[in-house]
């Protein structure tokens, strides 16, 4: 077992899995990413592609932090976030995104900002939305699960969505094979949904991660020339129906505060705000 530091922080391993699941399970919807990662990797670093740090008090796990491409604080107080930040400052930055509940991200960022450099963008106060009942509107019957045969039209739509949302292409820096593999993986899992008309995607969304309790949606997109037609409202209702019937009873996502059209669409479907997230992107 790795020695715990003076701040009570150490990397977690498979022996800590049950304690971690209990901690993250205190808020299984907000922590769905962390729970999904833990269950699929058993907290083994070779499968995580990084580490999960735990903070202990009197021998009990009280907070955690996923440190991979994404740094995600889990059940972290101000004091916990500071302790994780101090550990993070002992090494060079390897993460591309800090994301999670607003207060924990803000507190963590406050302590590393002077060393980790200027981020490409910070998005504070992103509404975290949840629906755990049936949609309030009729589903689009033309939304379906995608298949590998859809990749010639689906993949360009995913690239367009990502580029518009993040501000850089997922193919930049020679990453096209990795991104294509991710899109293919989601399709193979049955986690990719789209409405395709005339060989063109006019609505799409994916499940990013899921547990038996909750599923988090990502990549909701309608091409610019088709916006304002209600495709996202009826499309998201269809996605909620699919997910609740076959994956998890609660569906969540987080959205940029400034994206009023998307927020109106999610509200029409029946999503309600339960928390605020923040994202720091490098």
UniProtKB/TrEMBL annotation:
<dbReference type="InterPro" id="IPR016794">
    <property type="entry name" value="UCP21603_acetyltransf"/>
</dbReference>
<dbReference type="InterPro" id="IPR025289">
    <property type="entry name" value="DUF4081"/>
</dbReference>
<dbReference type="InterPro" id="IPR000182">
    <property type="entry name" value="GNAT_dom"/>
</dbReference>
<dbReference type="Pfam" id="PF00583">
    <property type="entry name" value="Acetyltransf_1"/>
</dbReference>
<keyword id="KW-0012">Acyltransferase</keyword>
<dbReference type="InterPro" id="IPR016181">
    <property type="entry name" value="Acyl_CoA_acyltransferase"/>
</dbReference>
<dbReference type="GO" id="GO:0016747">
    <property type="term" value="F:acyltransferase activity, transferring groups other than amino-acyl groups"/>
</dbReference>
<protein>
    <recommendedName>
        <fullName>N-acetyltransferase domain-containing protein</fullName>
    </recommendedName>
</protein>
<dbReference type="Pfam" id="PF13312">
    <property type="entry name" value="DUF4081"/>
</dbReference>
<keyword id="KW-0808">Transferase</keyword>
<feature type="domain" description="N-acetyltransferase">
    <location>
        <begin position="141"/>
        <end position="282"/>
    </location>
</feature>
<dbReference type="InterPro" id="IPR050832">
    <property type="entry name" value="Bact_Acetyltransf"/>
</dbReference>
């Amino acid at each position: 077992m790795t020695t715990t530091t003076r701040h009570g922080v150490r990397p977690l391993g498979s022996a800590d899995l049950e304690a971690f699941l209990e901690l993250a399970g205190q808020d299984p919807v907000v922590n769905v990413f962390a729970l999904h990662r833990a269950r699929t990797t058993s907290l083994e670093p070779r499968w995580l592609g990084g580490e999960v740090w735990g903070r202990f008090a009197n021998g009990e796990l009280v907070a955690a932090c996923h440190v991979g491409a994404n740094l995600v604080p889990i059940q972290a107080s101000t004091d916990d976030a500071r302790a994780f930040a101090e550990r993070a400052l002992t090494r060079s930055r390897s993460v591309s995104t800090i994301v999670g509940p607003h207060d924990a991200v803000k507190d963590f960022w406050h302590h590393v900002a002077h060393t980790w450099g200027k981020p490409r963008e910070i998005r504070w106060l992103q509404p975290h939305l949840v629906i755990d009942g049936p949609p309030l509107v009729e589903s689009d019957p033309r939304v379906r699960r995608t298949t590998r045969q859809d990749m010639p039209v689906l993949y360009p739509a995913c690239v367009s969505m990502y580029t518009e949302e993040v501000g850089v292409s997922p193919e930049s820096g020679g990453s096209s094979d990795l991104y294509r593999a991710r899109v293919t993986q989601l399709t193979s899992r049955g986690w990719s949904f789209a409405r395709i008309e005339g060989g063109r995607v006019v609505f799409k969304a994916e499940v990013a991660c899921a547990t038996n309790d909750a599923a988090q949606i990502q990549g909701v997109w309608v091409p610019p020339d088709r916006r304002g037609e209600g495709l996202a409202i009826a499309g998201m209702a269809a996605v909620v129906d699919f997910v609740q019937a076959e994956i998890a009873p609660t569906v969540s996502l987080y959205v940029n505060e400034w994206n009023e059209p998307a927020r109106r669409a999610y509200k029409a479907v029946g999503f309600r705000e339960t928390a605020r997230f923040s994202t720091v992107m490098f």
